[in-house]
Amino acid sequence: MSARRAEIEAKRAKLVELRKAREERAKQSREKLVEGDVHEHFGVSKREELDAFLASLLPSKEKELADGAAAGTAEAGSAVGIAEAGNAPKTAEAGNAPRTAEAGGAAGTTEAGSAARTTEAGNEAGTTEAGSAARTTQADSAAAGTHKSGAPSPLAPRSPPRPAKILYSKQVQTDEPLLEPAPPSPTPSPSALLSPRVPQRTPTPPSEELGKEYADFVYSRSLVIERVLDEEYDVLTDYTTVPDAQAPDHATTLHHVHTLFDTTMETRAVTALDWSAMHPELLAAAYSHASVPSNNGLEGLVAVWNRHVKERPEFLFAAPTDVTAVLASPFHPNLFLGGAANGQILVWDTRNRRLPVQRTPLSFSAGAGTGHCAPVTSLCMTGSAQAHTLVSASLDGLVCTWSMDMLAMPQESILLTNPMHPRSADVGVATLDVPSRDATQFFVGTDEGNVFHAARYDRAGIAAGLDLAHIYVGHAAPVTRLVCHPAPRGRRAPVDFSDLFLTSSMDWSTALWRMAGPATSTQASKSSYHYPHANARIATSTRTNPLAFRSANAAASPWTPVHPMARFENQQDYVMDVRWHPQHPAVFAQADAGGRLEMYNLNTSLERTVQTAQAPAGLNRLAWEHGTESAPSTRIALGALDGRVHLYEVPETLVRVRGDVEWLEMQHVLKGLG
């Protein structure tokens, strides 16, 4: 065991010695490479041996030549050697010194040969200029057979000059660049100024969030620029000249301002319009589906236009189907509501851009209690800013009340039916509106032409639903719009006109109505037979078969017909919409499918219009902008069947309210109508 250990130790010691020897050789090689030429490192030993061999052969011959040389000849030969070398005297003298010193130390060797060897070795080792000159001089002298004084022998043959050595550096040889590199800049780069401890940030590609923020910024700023560019102001107006009498007087006539249209609305029809009460310059327009398939993939649209930007909408909202009703929330500046053809109610937020933030669930039955299953025809907001509700109606006769905080299920739902109808008890609600005085009741216009009054809650002697005691009979075609008289904002009306409402119909007429009073005791006894309610205390057993009941009591009318106070029948096409002016109590406007806009002032005339205008295409909807008593509404928006929204300016003299005078005149006119 000890022998094995000793053997291992011996091998280890040998390995250590080999490693040290290898390191020593590597160290010597590096030193030689650093000190001089590579050729000297590999060939100096052989050159020294050759010089020693030649030196051993030269002394006898040089000695014979030196005996026959004279002192003067030696000096002349030294001068000739210096001249042949082509060096300066200082260089020759500097080269003679090492030659003399080496001649004294070498046995049997002449000074010329010793000097030649010394200078040649000095040149290959990288000696100074003086050594190079001495080597050249002594080499020539030795070749000519000089002696101690340096005098050449006339008998010695002259050897040819030694060719110059071409030395190469063992490095990678590359082509020199044609252009010299630019000098370094005196000013340091920004990266050089940074502390080495601070890591430099490399550029990273923008993330999706940064891209979205940048797109939103560009979109919003471009809208601001467009508003500024679309501002209409004539900077060339000359106030010193008399205006031209032939120029149109826009102060007394109804004139077109501009048209709101975008290529996205091509082949679509405007189905609803509503101005924003919080932002008076914003107008919400609902559109149907495109009659020609498009690539944008949008079925229904709601565009929020800014009347200061004509080229594109401020916001564009998407819907799964046609949007049949639209409402700008009067209590929230960012919310817009829409009723869809599939029965859903959609809520869009301008802060969320395109898609709805809330929506009602899809329903497949009107009595399921989850919402509408037919196209939504009307949307109304009732209440105040602190407590408000949304009332909606659909074509299947379902009226729902919603809370804006929860659209998953309606708070109330009433299915309107008419059991006295000879064909069907279903009521197709084409339009709905709530009186400004009492939000617990409402009026509906049906697709058969009749108008009904209805209640949202049960009352003493009256059930929730249609009030069949009074049927407003006046139109022979579907009712397209029913609108109640608006109450003035911010103050109490001098005269209460909340019981007035207007209706437009496809029978080419518009009608003015007044709400009927409560039924008398005789009428109540008759109406109690056909109240649409399931409570046995209200209904009688004879209401199970209305047709049989009617034939058995032919002398007793099942309802009391109510006729309109006034009819306006000057139209030449379907009357698609009618709206009261927000401030003036006697002014209203109507639009027909022929593209004609007509304005009436009941205080002036019940038969003639006060202003008319012709649009380039058929009209479907109209809406007055919101105004105040001090600045009444003077703009009206018209939605056309070709997807364009036309803005018209109404003369301010026509809609300005002169205190309570207009209200009192309206009251006088209504008394004359009975």
TrEMBL record:
InterPro entries associated with the record: Dynein_IC, WD40/YVTN_repeat-like_dom_sf, WD40_repeat_dom_sf, WD40_rpt
Compositionally skewed regions (Low complexity) per UniProt: 100-144
Compartment(s) where it occurs, according to its Swiss-Prot or TrEMBL record: Cytoplasm
One GO BP annotation of this record: transport along microtubule
SUPFAM superfamilies with a match to the protein in the record: WD40 repeat-like
Pfam families: WD40
Domain of life: Eukaryota
Pro residues bias: start-end ranges: 154-163, 180-189
Region (Disordered) location: 87-163, 176-211
Keyword Zinc assigned: no
Keywords assigned: Cytoplasm, Repeat, WD repeat
GO molecular function: dynein heavy chain binding; dynein light chain binding
KW Cytoplasm (keyword) present: yes
GO CC, alphabetical: cytoplasm; cytoplasmic dynein complex
PANTHER family per the UniProt record, alphabetical: CYTOPLASMIC DYNEIN 1 INTERMEDIATE CHAIN-RELATED, DYNEIN INTERMEDIATE CHAIN
Protein name: Uncharacterized protein
